[in-house]
Amino acid sequence: MLQSLPDNWMTLTGLLAGLLVVAWLGDLIATAVFRGGVRRVAKRTASTWDDRLIDRKVFSRIAHVVPAMILYYGIAPAMGVTAADLTEPVGTAALLVSLIQRVSFSFIVVTIVMAINAFLNAVNDIYNDSYAEANSRPIKGYLQVVGLVLWIAAGVVVISVLTGRSPIVFLSGLGALTAVLMLVFRDTILSLVASLQIMSNDMIRIGDWVEMPQASADGDVIDIALHTVKIQNFDKTITTIPTHRFISDSFRNWRGMSESGGRRIKRAIVIDMSSIRFLTDDEIAQLSKYELLREYMQEKRGTLVKYEDEKGALGADVVPIKRSLTNAGTFRRYVLEYLEANPKIHKEMTLLVRQLAPSPKGLPIELYCFTNDTAWSNYEDIQGDIFDHLIAVLPEFGLQAFQEPAGTDFARLVGATD
After folding, report:
1. Percent of the chain, pLDDT > 70?
2. What is the CATH number of domain 261-277+326-418?
3. Span 223-245, pLDDT tens digits
4. Do 362 and 403 touch, CB atoms closer than 8 A?
5. Could you tell me if 255 and 240 are in contact, meaning their C-beta atoms sit under 8 angstroms apart?
6. Residue 11 to residue 17: CA distance in whole angstroms
7. Residue ranges for the chain with pLDDT beneath 50
């Protein structure tokens, strides 16, 4: 129990108040000196690393150690307590001095750890600014691991100082708490292992377009940390995903598309099958005038003439297998020639026009090719221009695109019957 206050308690109170004022002034002076001096030096240098240290307030945090040190070393003389009295504190003054010293020392430890963490953040900023491989090899996760270890060590030191016990006492009990620690730090351990695998396998980088439907994420990676990966979706919302999910769950990274220089078009025009038929001689003659079909039509017409000569030898009483050009087949060739002549289509990648299986909705004619521009807006413009042209040219081949009946169709039908 605390003993009664000493007779000179008013004097001690005044000294304590004076010490607090000195500590406060020391904090102001140290902060001003650190900030002013460091900023003046930083302005004279061409490098930017010192600016990053200032932005992260590394020196400002270090300056806050000064008032704590003033209290730690000045409280005993102010209260008239000697070092021998603090060996086993007895009395109000000694206990108060011991308590203030312990709190001051704990504050110093916490402040130093905060300054080191700010320094680690500055190191990450400097690395991102100075090295081109920062996007593919971010170090933020590793620096956060270092910071976590420092905070754990600081916590052990602070508890040992406040309780007056040796840190070894707390560390010796960690073995029995291993299972609890594994449960508490489960996400941290998983994230650390995931970060190592992500970096070693180069799975994601800052700036990658990543799609993870199960997390409702579809956008660009803007931050890779120890515990989380932040993705800015195309609607400008931010999705935060635990790092370890990029190892346990599947996701799509569009970086390969960007690096390849080509972006795929895979879309079909559905043809109304009732409009598919053989071409007449007049239509063949008309389509033969098209620049994209001249060689093809000339080749096909020669093949048909040769085929008819061969089948003519069978006699008049034999009906040969009919072989003629169809409007759908000619249209497929036109589309292929059109894509090959388009300067915005990548010629070194797969390029084909194929007929898919017919369905109740019609016959799909699918385009499978790659644009040579991977930018989203440019890609959509190129794809839109291609299909605008192909849909508009369908009537030239006697073809019609299929679409579900609309209200206007039923209205015209009703009007025709009235």
Report:
1. 84
2. 3.30.70.100
3. 888 888 999 999 999 999 998 89
4. no
5. no
6. 10
7. 1-3
Closest Cα partner for 329 from 384, 383, 287?
287
SS (H, E, C) 301-314: HHHHHHHHHHHHCC
Distances (CA, A) of 112 to 38, 71, 132, 279: 18, 16, 31, 86
Domain limits of the chain?
Answer: 9-172, 201-260, 261-277+326-418, 280-324
CATH class, 201-260 region? mainly beta
Amino acid at residue number 323: R
Query: What separation in angstroms does the CA of 188 have from each of 15, 43, 240, 311?
Result: 48, 39, 16, 79
The first and second tokens of residue 139, run together, are 């170090």
- The burial class, CB within 10 Å (0-12 / 13-18 / 19+), for 61 is buried
Residues in a beta bridge with 269 = 365
Query: With b meaning 16 or more CB within 10 Å and e meaning fewer, what string describes 8-37?
Result: eeeebeebbeebbeebeebbeebbeebeee
